[in-house]
């Protein structure tokens, strides 16, 4: 029996459709804070036909089943190493048994819902970048209780600091810290 990762990848087009209004509410925030995002919907009222057509187009371009398989393979091999880096940095980090990780095409690179849901944008992203984003969002969830009252920039800076100081940068040498507009 093969080892199952604590990162469980999910692909659900109903979930993707359901996230669109929430993403749409954040578009001004993304623009104001120079956060890259993908949101190809032009119509103010998101119509089911337009959504279905766009999801089909993005599914064809981004091969979510293949991406999910590759992410699962990576975490089966490297999750212990990732956990070890983070635990060496802070022994008090409490990992959940499972982090439901949803593949999406829209919005920013990644975001999370406490206590254990990660959403990662796979639209035109490299596999390594997608995995880095999952680990970044995982760190958000691990420190959520301590940082939930901090502002966005302070929390992102803390996540980047943990990513680098924990040694994860050795696994992900191309990791880029958040860049904010001045």
Name a few traits of the molecule.
182 residues, alpha/beta, 54% helix
**What is the topology, as strand order, of the major beta sheet?**
1-2-4-3
- Major sheet, described briefly? 4 strands, mixed
Count of DSSP helices? 7
User: Structural class of the secondary structure composition?
Assistant: alpha/beta
Shape: globular
Mean pLDDT: 93
Distance between the termini: 51 Å
The rounded Rg comes to 16 Å
Percent strand = 5-15%
**What letter string, H or E per element, gives the SSE order?**
EHHHHEEEHHH
* Helix proportion range: 40-55%
Tell me the number of strands. 4
Low-confidence stretches: none
Characterization of this structure:
The chain is of the alpha/beta class and 182 residues long. The protein is 54% helix and 10% strand. The chain contains seven helices and four strands. It has helices at residues 13-25, 27-32, 48-62, 64-89, 127-147, 152-165, 168-171; strands spanning 7-10, 99-104, 110-113, 117-121. A four-stranded mixed sheet has the order 1-2-4-3, with helices on both faces. β3 (110-113) and β4 (117-121) form a beta hairpin. α4 (64-89) crosses α5 (127-147) and α5 crosses α6. The longest helix is centred in the middle third of the chain and has 26 residues, at 64-89. The protein is globular. The model has no long low-confidence stretch (mean pLDDT 93).
């Amino acid at each position: 029996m093969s080892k199952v990762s604590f990162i469980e990848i999910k692909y659900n087009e109903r979930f993707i459709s359901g996230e669109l209004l929430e993403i749409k509410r954040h578009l001004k925030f993304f623009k104001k804070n120079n956060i890259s995002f993908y949101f190809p919907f032009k119509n103010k009222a998101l119509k089911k036909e337009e959504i279905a057509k766009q999801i089909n187009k993005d599914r064809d371009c981004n091969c979510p089943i293949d991406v999910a398989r590759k992410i699962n393979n990576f975490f089966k091999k490297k999750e212990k190493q990732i956990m070890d880096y983070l635990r060496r940095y802070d022994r008090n980090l409490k990992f959940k048994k499972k982090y439901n990780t949803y593949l999406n095409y829209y919005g920013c690179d990644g975001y999370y819902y406490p206590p254990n849901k990660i959403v990662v944008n796979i639209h035109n992203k490299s596999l390594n970048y997608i995995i880095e984003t999952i680990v970044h969002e995982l760190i958000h969830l691990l420190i959520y209780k301590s940082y939930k009252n901090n502002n966005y920039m302070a929390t992102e800076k803390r996540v980047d600091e943990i990513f680098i100081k924990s040694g994860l940068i050795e696994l992900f040498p191309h990791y880029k810290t958040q860049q904010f507009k001045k």
